[in-house]
């Protein structure tokens, strides 16, 4: 599974990529493994190249975020069209979704000018073979299309819209397709410098090869504070929980043996 | 310029990639254009592949973040070594930097156990041809090496260390090498729905082709609140400022003409 986020605002550091973090966390908890997150500018060649690179790795899912709006610099669907060689076509169902939103906005007196047809149509113009995903929070529908082994999902970049489409259409789909379940534990160890504790981490991963342990020194080496994050995927949730618990318990005992204080993190 | 961030914690959504945002913002303000941000797991094949992909695009700089620490899952330098075909070698100057830090920690009574030689040496083992960059905030030095047209810079993932190395070694280097300067303006427009205002944005960019205008609808379409971000690179700071100011003034007037309220954003 890969995530492709599109937007100049991310590449000038105007905002942090909270969309990617939100998706990565949700997908992980649904048993999906995110292997790569890529951010490219609102530039058609960059989007096309990144999509092609991504598809060449044959992930089961690609989620794109951003670039579905009405303005000319929203070019994700054009990028998908070029990367796949599938022409853009006005999609009847997508147009119905967009029109419904426009009627709502007109009825609420929000739109002052007549809705611009080319821009309305742009949001309903999808690569051939794509299906629109109803957007409960905005006008631009999400888009879903199968390309070989990869299911491509395109989500808008406005966080409230992205999250709403994910919850409505993708949560169930991803949980169904995920063959794995995920569990995690956090430990906070104080009083042992990271270099003194890292052999224990290596040993924990040798004893529990199916578990991943990541240590994060907090506030510099001199403070001797380490946050440990212990995670595992397994075929069942029970098994994933059992794996992380076994590694966490071993590390807790080891930290105490070395004279550290340990607490569990929520 | 590309940024490669390494770390499982980013791909499970445990943390937001604030390191990438910080670097992107600093680099942009120094006149550098970040074209891509990639995140891969702590996995050697993923790091090697991402580096090779990146180098094939021949950016002037690649900044990697994370994976320089003492534990076996810190494998960025091994990744650089494999991607470039340059063997890892113990670097005398890097070892001196690491030893100095170890002596400091010993003197402060932080290290309880003897410092582990293989792990100390790991942080001082650099790809052939690399130079260490002194880390004022931690043990692992940053790393700098030229690979063809690309200068590769490797920074640790602990934010305070990454920032300190950037400030000490890279700020001046990037400013010197950047041929461009950057300026930006923010406008907040209220009372015009984004679809009604987007033709004005298109028109602004036609009138000022050297300026990039990005609109961000805030809080959903029904609120009719738009944040506009106007930015430009130019050969001099004065010229970059002149360009964004011209576009911002035009957009301000246009928003007022359409009945909106406008304010400048800090």
Give a verbal description of the structure:
Two copies of one chain form a homodimer. Chain A has nine helices and twelve strands. In chain A, α2 (18-29) runs parallel beside α7 (159-177), α3 (44-56) crosses α4 (76-84) and α8 runs antiparallel to α9. In chain A, the strands form three sheets. In chain A, strands 2-1-3-8-7-6 form a six-stranded mixed β-sheet, with helices on both faces. The mean pLDDT of chain A is 92. Chain A is 43% helix and 25% strand. Chain A has two domains: 2-177, MoaB/Mog-like domain (Molybdenum Cofactor Biosythetic Enzyme, Chain A); 181-265, Alpha-Beta Plaits, CATH 3.30.70. Chain A has helices spanning 8-11, 18-29, 44-56, 76-84, 92-107, 117-123, 159-177, 194-207, 237-257, and strands at 2-6, 36-40, 61-65, 88-90, 125-127, 131-133, 142-147, 150-155, 181-190, 212-217, 225-234, 261-265. Chain A is α/β, with parallel strands linked by helices and 266 residues long. Chain A is elongated and about 70 Å long. Chains A and B meet through α1, α2, β2, α3 and α8 of A and α1, α2, β2, α3 and α8 of B.
């Amino acid at each position: 599974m890969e995530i492709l986020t599109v937007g100049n605002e991310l590449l000038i550091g105007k905002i942090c990529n909270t969309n990617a973090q939100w998706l990565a966390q949700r997908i992980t908890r649904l048993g999906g493994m995110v292997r790569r997150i890529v951010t490219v500018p609102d530039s058609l060649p960059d989007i096309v190249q990144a999509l092609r690179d991504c598809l060449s790795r044959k992930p089961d899912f690609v989620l794109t975020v951003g670039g579905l709006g009405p303005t000319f610099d929203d070019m994700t669907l054009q990028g998908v069209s070029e990367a796949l060689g599938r022409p853009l076509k006005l999609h009847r169902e997508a147009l119905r979704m967009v029109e419904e939103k426009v009627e709502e906005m007109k009825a609420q007196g929000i739109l002052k000018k007549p809705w611009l047809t080319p821009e309305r149509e742009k949001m309903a113009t999808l690569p051939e073979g794509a299906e629109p995903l109803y957007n409960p929070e905005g006008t631009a529908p999400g888009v879903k299309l199968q390309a070989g082994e990869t299911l491509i999902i395109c989500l808008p970049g406005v966080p409230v819209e992205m999250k709403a489409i994910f919850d409505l259409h993708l949560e169930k789909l991803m949980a169904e397709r995920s063959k794995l379940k995920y569990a995690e534990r956090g430990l906070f160890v104080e009083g042992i410098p990271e270099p003194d504790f890292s052999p224990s981490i290596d040993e924990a991963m040798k004893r529990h090869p199916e578990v991943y342990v990541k240590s994060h020194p907090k506030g510099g080496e001199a403070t001797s504070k380490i946050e440990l994050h212990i995670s595992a995927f397994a075929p069942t949730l029970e098994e994933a929980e059992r794996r992380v618990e076994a590694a966490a318990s071993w590390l807790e005992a080891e930290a105490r043996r070395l004279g550290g204080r340990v607490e569990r993190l929520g």
